[in-house]
């Protein structure tokens, strides 16, 4: 059964001295950068926040943690491929290719089956 994806802003990102609400629909993926997090948006430059990926994982519950450095918006997954249980690569709507860690492949696959909509939103 597909769960509806909550598109309410989970917080704000400081951008150019201002606070900007996060729109999960426009956020493709989130990348750990030591104690910072980089947001990769549709049609916008990446932004760096001073909050860890673990904290953003709590604020973005519909995003899928595919490895220790990345959270992915299931709405922006255009393709998934790999050998069964050995590797999994997700191709995002912006063309980014991200590998799931071997430990997380089964969990990622199950979450994708639960959350993946009939069509991705694209950029």
3D architecture notes:
By secondary structure, the protein is of the alpha+beta class. The chain has one domain (12-115): OB fold (Dihydrolipoamide Acetyltransferase, E2P). Helix content is 15%, strand content 35%. It has two helices and ten strands, in the order βββββαβββββα. The longest helix is centred in the last third of the chain and has 11 residues, at 105-115. The protein is globular, with a radius of gyration of 14 Å. The model is unreliable at 1-9 (pLDDT under 50).
List keywords for this structure.
alpha+beta; OB fold (Dihydrolipoamide Acetyltransferase, E2P); five-stranded antiparallel β-sheet; 35% strand; globular
CATH level-4 homologous superfamily:
LytTr DNA-binding domain
Strand order of the largest sheet: 5-4-3-7-6
Give the distance, in angstroms, between the N- and C-terminal Cα atoms: 26 Å
* CATH topological fold name: OB fold (Dihydrolipoamide Acetyltransferase, E2P)
Structural class: alpha+beta
What spatial form do the alpha-carbon principal axes imply?
A: globular
Instruction: Write down the oligomeric state.
Output: single chain
Please state roughly what percent of the residues sit in beta strands, choosing from under 5%, 5-15%, 15-25%, 25-35%, 35-45% or over 45%: 25-35%
Query: Low-confidence stretches at least 5 residues in length (pLDDT < 50)?
Result: 1-9
| SSE string | EEEEEHEEEEEH
> What is the overall number of helices?
2
Q: If you compute it from the alpha carbons, what radius of gyration comes out, rounded to the nearest whole angstrom? A: 14 Å
